[in-house]
């Protein structure tokens, strides 16, 4: 099949309002009728619909308990009324309110993130292979804010059959110089790209990205979970105010314990 | 013209190795021959080629001075040999080594970022309108790392004719609930998306993104520079270690000044 040399990002139209009674794979296959899919294509799936088919509904009245349950550690606290904390959640993602979300959920419910989005992606990839006979890449997306930048973008929180990075380390640039650092996070870029069509109109939770052949690697053991930086390599593991306060308390404790004899000399 | 309902991202092939003797607009127009462009299309342009045509070359031996010149404040210091600092640069972008880059630059030169990427984008948009008769959106991109996530993605450091955000605040979601926070940074998502075709192969510094009509706003006064979060609203304005040390010093100074009488009681 003739392809443009670039990418196409196609919103999947006509998907239902998902419930635990739906099969995500079945509905996706149905919505793909008339759209050519091929090895090398990637489906970007909003985590929200994965949560819905997996039944991750929690009564809205239990939102606070859910956030607490899904919080591994608090990174920073926003100020002001109704401000939520920025935390590392059980998936290793740093996000406001642990990624718990009430938007686009009907009734008095909130949605927890999928239990294991990498496993969800793997299941979906397998079911789609059974139905379509091809290995699609799967990226499960979530929306997060960023330090230093206003606004949110989508990132990858689950994946299957996708190479997470365009790893150019060890290669050479066009000028023949060694590339020592460059390691593009393709999975997050796919998530962000897919949001451009998903985000346009409500009710479009899945997009097909065509033309990513070199990043679709059937059976790869790379998992979006591994994009999360290890705590000890993270220069921003604690918010500025929280780290300042920890330092302040630490100094006072050192003084109280007699470990600092002359504070002026430190 | 019939368009797919989604996006197309087309790498521009055959652009030259840019020098200050080139006109970016002229070369882009040349490379667009045979490709349909229309209002609502966006060109994503790697800042590196903007720097090259604007002559932002600095001798490699002056790299350290250039980084210092472009640094507004140090945010965090990486550890280890050859580690660069993460700083806010003169464009307001938080990036390693102030965004100064030696990759894909021939000879003993490094490249500074464009003096004013928003102005560069505006100039390019005007020149392309003169040449093509249409208003294209322009996003000038740079590559940055992220806290909490491995790998880099592209972000927007300059823009013209582009709405930076899909601002859904004040709207309602599909379940009729008010959206209070959601504000997708479309400009950064365009930058990330374009990197998927630019990043694939060296020597592709420009991509055309088709199908973004609702975000192309000719003459908008929105500028990518404004995506940078104001310092006082930034919960991560200083690295964890740096903030801890500041807190520690601050406590000792308070003790030394007699402001803390009983450290154990604080």
UniProtKB/TrEMBL annotation, chains A, B:
Keywords of the record: GTP-binding, Ligase, Magnesium, Manganese, Metal-binding, Nucleotide-binding, Potassium
Top-level EC class: ligase
Matches recorded under InterPro entries: F420-0_g-glutamyl_ligase, F420-0_gamma-glut_ligase-dom
EC number annotated for this UniProt entry: 6.3.2.31, 6.3.2.34
Residue ranges constituting the Coenzyme F420:L-glutamate ligase-like domain according to the UniProt record: 15-211
UniProt GO molecular function: coenzyme F420-0:L-glutamate ligase activity; coenzyme F420-1:gamma-L-glutamate ligase activity; GTP binding; metal ion binding
NCBIfam families: F420_cofE (TIGR01916)
Protein name (record): Coenzyme F420-0:L-glutamate ligase/coenzyme F420-1:gamma-L-glutamate ligase
Organism: Leucobacter aridicollis
């Amino acid at each position: 099949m003739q392809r443009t040399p670039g990418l196409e990002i196609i919103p999947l139209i006509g998907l239902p309002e998902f419930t635990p009674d739906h099969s995500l794979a079945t509905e996706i296959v149905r919505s793909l009728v008339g759209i050519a899919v091929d090895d090398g294509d990637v489906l970007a799936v909003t985590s929200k619909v994965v949560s819905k088919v997996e039944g991750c509904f929690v009564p809205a009245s239990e939102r606070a308990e859910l956030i607490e349950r899904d919080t591994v550690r608090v990174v920073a606290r926003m100020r002001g009324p109704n401000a939520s904390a920025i935390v590392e959640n059980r998936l290793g993602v740093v996000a406001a309110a642990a990624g718990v979300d009430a938007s686009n959920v009907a009734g008095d419910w909130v949605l927890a993130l999928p239990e294991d989005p990498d496993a969800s992606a793997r299941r979906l990839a397998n079911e789609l292979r059974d139905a379509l006979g091809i290995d699609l890449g799967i990226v499960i997306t979530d929306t997060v804010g960023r330090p230093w930048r206003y606004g949110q973008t989508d990132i990858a929180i689950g994946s299957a059959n996708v190479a997470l990075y365009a790893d150019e380390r060890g290669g050479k640039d066009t000028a023949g110089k060694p590339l020592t650092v460059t390691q593009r996070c393709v999975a997050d870029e796919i998530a962000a790209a897919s949001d451009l069509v998903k985000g346009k109109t409500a009710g479009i939770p899945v997009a097909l990205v065509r033309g990513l052949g070199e990043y679709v690697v059937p059976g790869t053991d790379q998992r979006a979970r591994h994009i999360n930086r290890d705590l000890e390599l993270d220069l921003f593991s604690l918010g500025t105010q929280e780290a300042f306060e920890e330092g302040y308390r630490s100094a006072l404790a050192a003084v109280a314990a007699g470990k600092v004899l002359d504070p002026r000399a430190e």
